Each structure stands twice: as structure tokens, then as C-alpha cells.
Model the fold of this input.
Amino acid sequence: MTTEDIIRSFRQKVCKEIELEGEGLNRYIVYTPFMFDDGDHFVIVLREQEGRWVLTDEGHTFLHLSYGGPDLTRGTRGKVIDQTLDTYRVANESGELRLTVPNGAYGDALFSFVQAISRIASTALWTRERVESTFRDDFRELLEATVAKEWLTFEYIDPEIDPEGNYPVDCRINGRTRQCFIFAVANTDQCRNATITVYHYERHARVFSSFVVFEDQTSINRRALAQLSDVVGRQFASLAAKDRITDYLTKEVVGADH
Done:
């Protein structure tokens, strides 16, 4: 297929404002009108690699979005990005996005590649509220997949010592012999609230174990984190520690009641 054929395929499947510029042997810069939020254009290169033609961003997308932005590899953003890459069959090779052009389908490949970059870029613009919401959904999903549902009470309130619901617990596991309070903490305010809640239950002589799962522990104010550390039993820095959280629940929380 000639470069003219490739350009024609790109324009038919994506848009008319696409150009190719040769740069070295079997390497072309693909100019498109698609941009990041700050006005910089997507970097897309078409190059031959091991006998196949590949679309690549040569590591630009993640590098560009990392400047002063959130960590896209962790938490909910990381999960959504992995799902996006899987959907569009784009590989992440140590930060470089690549898509092998299948059977000469250059236009379809470019369309998928642009869609993948666009969706990845959009995660950097998520508001704190949206990230927090999806974090709590993931938190709940993990607990429900590990612990019998009849043991779980989300947004637990003790009707005896907290009838007005001022000290809610994100999740209570009520086992046969003891209870465990679990807190999902996405920001410093929630960290402080968890500390106050644990103090409240201790002051009323409730017997319980406790642990915290952070959306991103590194984002929490140090003083607030230190205060929480004084009262809570176990901490997990993020949901990326899924295997350790599951192991802890199974052996130390649920297992203690068997």
C-alpha cells in the first residue's frame, strides 16, 4: 500500500484533516487535528517494526499527562486506562502506546488509536468527586467479593451510641465473635472523620478491630495521617494492594471467626 493509499484510508475512517510526513526509513509522522486539553496535539507515528506497521505515540501521551497532573497508573484511573487499552487493543510497552495495523486496515487502526489516547487524556480531567465516587465503588466491590454479604453493613450507624448518625462507619463486618470497622479514605477530611469515629466508638467501650483503605495515601495531610495511625489497626495505601487486602480480610478478619 502506498502512502497515498494510507492517507486516503486515514481520511475515510477518521477525518479529512490528516497528513503524513516521512521522517527517516519507513517512519512517518501522522498529523491529526486531535489535541490534549492544553492545546498540544497528540503525537502519533506510523513506523515499520519487525515486518509489521505499527502506530505508536513513542511514549508521549503518558509523559505529557504526567506534567503536574494526577498519577494515571494508580487507583480508578489506572483501572479505566487498562480497560480502555484492552478495548482498543492498544499495548502499553513501558509507557509507550502501540497498535499493530491489522491486515492493512490503516484507517480502522488510526481510529482506535485516537480513541484510546482521547479516553486516556480524559481521565486526567476527572474531578476529585468523580474519582472518589469510583474509588468507593471499587472498595465496595472488593469487600463484597471477599466477605459474605450477610456479614457486611455499609454506612453502618450504631443506633444506641450514635442515633443521629454523626459517626458513620464506611463498612462494618459483623462476624460471629467480633466486629471490624473499615474506612475508605479518599482525602484528608475523610481521614479526620475516620479518626473521630474510631475515638467515638472507643470512648463508648465498643470492642472492634479496624483498618483503612486509602484512595492514595500519599495525598493525605501528614498530621491527619499521623492522628489516624494512632487509633486505627491496619492501613493499606491504595486499592492497588488488592491481594494483600483480600488476604488480610480472609485470614485476620473473617478467618478469626471460624
About this structure: Helices lie at 3-13, 60-66, 75-87, 106-123, 128-146, 188-203, 222-231, 242-254. The chain has a mean pLDDT of 88.
